[in-house]
Amino acid sequence: MNFDFVSRRSMVTGRRGMVAASNPLAAQAGLNILRQGGNAADAAIATAAMMNVTAPASTGIGGDCFALYYDAKSGQVTALNGSGRAPAELSIDYLGEQGITGELPARSVHAVTVPGAAMGWHDLITRYGRMTLADVLQDAIYYASEGYPVTPVFGASWQASEQLLKNGPNTEDYLPQGKAPQVGQVVTLPGLASTLRAVAEGGPQAFYESPVADAIVETLQAQGGLMTKEDLKKHTSTWGDPISVDYRGVTVVEHPPNGQGLAALMALKIAEAWDLASMDNLSPEKLHLMVEAMRLGFADARQYIADPDVSPVPVDALLSESYAAQRRAMVSADAAMQPPGYGTPPDSSNTIYLCVVDGDGNACSFINSLYMGFGSGIVAKGTGVFLQNRGANFVLDPTHPNALAGGKRPYHTIIPGMLLKDGAFHATFGVMGGFMQPQGHFQVVNALIDDDINPQEALDRPRWCLTAGTDDSTLALEEGIPVKTMARLAELGHRVQPISGRGRGLFGSGQIIIRDQKSGALFGGSDPRKDGLVAGY
């Protein structure tokens, strides 16, 4: 049976509630919560927990989460930062003594940061939800215990990671009969079910101050890591205000640093002066300008984005009109620029993304990640919990704002997005996939605002990606972009790499839900590059 996809999806409509996720069971879990009287916050956590079960390569309670939440009563958007910190005892000097210099190996035990998801899940529903963790985790616990069939796209990533799993500690649950499961094979995850059940009954303390915490620390220390029980016990989420720009009369809202949403907003500020709506979507002229704007956004993002509690980020200056004009002037329509480097502003994944809108108009844009596939590849003994490797994004230069330090949060790739019109909720959106995420946000916002197309069409469009998320990256172009466009981009000086087939996973995967402000009708799309579904009623 051939599981390769060609999108034939229709946009989904609803009125009383809608959930968009990368797995059908996860979307249904969220919809079940809405039908039971839960709101967007409750449904988001139910969906995220089910994604942990059905897409363990991409996400989990051993990772981090970020959320943007629109509260219909107040009309305010709030940002939840559920990212964890490096172990207190970890330092650049210590790594140097271990022979680790230049960059931190992605699968190193020292790349494991404190998992923030469990606390983030709890904090979101405590502040905005109507239900408890015990209520919203029931479907995830059931399917982890009783089993579910592996879906095609996630099955492929599972099989591609088989050797990583065989090399990692305590991964037996994820290698039934000693190998990665096949598409359609029914998988149970008893260790994960036990952990989710403990968290449902005991809250976040059952993760951070418990036998689960003991297992995390003992497993990591056995691998040479420095994480302690105190690191886990001290973990907290943080709440804050989102960051935003006005783009053609629509407010584009992103999560603030340490997330990389700032990169997407910088690209949008640069691009706003160009008449992109008049250009053909897949023309070399349009793609060239957008790519150049994104390169400039990445150049500054990789320099300035860090843990704001340690290294303040000049957000207002980077998003100012004057700085956007200064950076825009570097772009030529006739040639790709040399790597621009970061500017000086004036003073002043593997991942899953899901979104939920409820019948009261509340909306949640939510993203949860282990970073790379199966994170560090390390499972805490007896828990079924893969531990993330987010610390791989730290810089080992002590003078850099994103320099590794104990108790510090790293540059984060995961970012939820939202659109407001006239101050009221309009859309929730996100594109998962490491450094593809701000590029995906840029392309989705362009599709929804400049080209005024529906959410499913916006997600179906072929994409481009600066592969390493830097100002000198290779430009990957997805199958579906005309060959003549690729050729012209190469003539302009871009290092072009056509991508087709399963390699298209590079371009991430997204979800979008739009709410009509007059009728309350909901319109949803789910990315054809994953196994996802929009569920509404």
UniProtKB/TrEMBL annotation:
Belongs to the gamma-glutamyltransferase family. This enzyme consists of two polypeptide chains, which are synthesized in precursor form from a single polypeptide. It holds the Pfam family G_glu_transpept. Gene3D superfamilies: 1.10.246.130, 3.60.20.40. The active site is at T351. Cleaved by autocatalysis into a large and a small subunit. One of its GO terms (molecular function) is leukotriene C4 gamma-glutamyl transferase activity. GO terms for biological process: glutathione biosynthetic process; glutathione catabolic process. This is Glutathione hydrolase proenzyme. L-glutamate binds at G434. InterPro entries: GGT-like_enzyme, GGT_lsub, GGT_peptidase, GGT_ssub_C, Ntn_hydrolases_N. Its EC number is 2.3.2.2, 3.4.19.13. Keywords: Acyltransferase, Glutathione biosynthesis, Hydrolase, Transferase, Zymogen. It catalyses: glutathione + H2O = L-cysteinylglycine + L-glutamate; an N-terminal (5-L-glutamyl)-[peptide] + an alpha-amino acid = 5-L-glutamyl amino acid + an N-terminal L-alpha-aminoacyl-[peptide]; an S-substituted glutathione + H2O = an S-substituted L-cysteinylglycine + L-glutamate. Pathway: Sulfur metabolism; glutathione metabolism. The keyword Iron does not apply. It comes from Phototrophicus methaneseepsis.
